[in-house]
Amino acid sequence: AKELGRNNLQIFNAQMAATAHEKLRRYEELREAVAREEFVLHYQPQMNLRSGKIFAAESLLRWQHPERGIVAPGEFIPLAEETGLIVDIGDWALNAACHQNKAWQDAGLPPIVISVNVSARQFRERDWVSRVATALAESGLEARYLELELTESLIMQDVPQAVATMHALEALGIQLAIDDFGTGYSSLSALKRFPVKRLKIDRSFVMDIPFDEDDKAITSAIISLAQELGMEVIAEGVETEAQLEFLRDNGCNEIQGYFFSRPVPAEGLARLISAD
Ligand code: C2E
Ligand code: CA
Ligand code: CA
Ligand code: CA
């Protein structure tokens, strides 16, 4: 039994070493990618059902891997967050999104808001607010054309600190949205203190509409809540006409999802907004 135990332990250690080695290799590779700026942003339009127009686009990060091609964020953002590389990657994304939106405006396209995802690590950087101000100044983009998406769980980690940072961001004139709303545990009393313009209903609630009664109830409750608090509300992950109809019938007039468009490269979004 003792022998067996020792052997198992050896196997276990060998596996741990292999895993640690693999992780280190992935970290080095991602760090190289940051140095070489091997990233690109794709953009997914956000549609206002009342005007029938695209009013905004969410920027979504992709890694242009030299061998593997386009890599989705789900495959590298967790490691980037764990290792802190997300701070540099997020800075790159923020700057790229601001420059791109300004370039569209300079090309004479109808102005839209660009929304940028923010990770908890970035948000907690001491100089985060001034980095945002710098991105605006360097790109020349007016603050009202930038929106930051903060997840509900990011905000709830430290509510007083988050509220203070949110007020500083609001003072710059940018818009704030709460992403993945409904998946965290915002207390309603906390929610009303957030200087937030928009709630984004998480895709997990939209997915099974119109078949799941609970999801329908939750979705319409979030829409009412936003209206009561004087916030805008957008549904993400809208894929079908039935979902769109349910949302519209329940007072949600902003839609994002494959039903209208998948995330597309910058030229694709320019075509969508100019055709609008
Ligand atoms: P998210 O912020 O919730 O972004 C929405 C995700 O849902 C995107 O996946 C988008 O492509 C996908 N999506 C949009 N419409 C539909 C639909 O109708 N059906 C389905 N099935 N999916 C839809 P993506 O681009 O793979 O991004 C995944 C996550 O990676 C994002 O979730 C966000 O948490 C993170 N992420 C992406 N870009 C950035 C970034 O620049 N910074 C940070 N910190 N995180 C990012
Ligand atoms: Ca988002
Ligand atoms: Ca989301
Ligand atoms: Ca999500």
From TrEMBL:
Location of the EAL domain: 23-276
Name the UniProt record assigns to this protein: Diguanylate cyclase (GGDEF)-like protein/PAS domain S-box-containing protein
Organism for this UniProt entry: Pararhizobium capsulatum DSM 1112
Superkingdom, natural source: Bacteria
Entire-sequence positions represented here: 495 to 770 of 770
First and last residue of the signal peptide: none
